[in-house]
Amino acid sequence: SRTIATHARAYQAGRRDVAAMPTMPPPAQPVTGPEASNEATMVLPEAGRGNNYR
């Protein structure tokens, strides 16, 4: 029962930490300007290159 009490205390402490954190990050804003063109022209890796394809 001692381990259960320890886990319960850790759970309560974790819940307090979560409650202290901001609920959610702000929603992503649409990107405008030169950064938008940079994101639009991102180069995708070719198939067969790197570790993405085995």
Order of helices and strands: HH
Low-confidence stretches: none
SSE-based structural type: mainly alpha
Task: Please give the count of helices.
Answer: 2
Question: What is the number of E strands?
Answer: 0
Q: Give the overall silhouette.
A: elongated
Query: Approximately how much beta-strand content do the residues carry?
Result: under 5%
Largest sheet: none
Helix fraction, binned, reads: 40-55%
The N- to C-terminal Cα distance equals 49 Å
Q: Rg, please?
A: 23 Å
Mean of the pLDDT scores?
62
Region (Disordered): 19-54
List keywords for this structure.
54 residues; mainly alpha; 2 helices; elongated
What does this structure look like?
Residues 19-54 are annotated as: Disordered. The chain is mainly alpha-helical and 54 residues long. Helices cover 48% and strands 0% of the residues. The protein contains 2 helices and no strands. The protein has helices spanning 2-20, 34-40. The longest helix has 19 residues, at 2-20. The protein is elongated, with a radius of gyration of 23 Å. The model has no long low-confidence stretch (mean pLDDT 62).
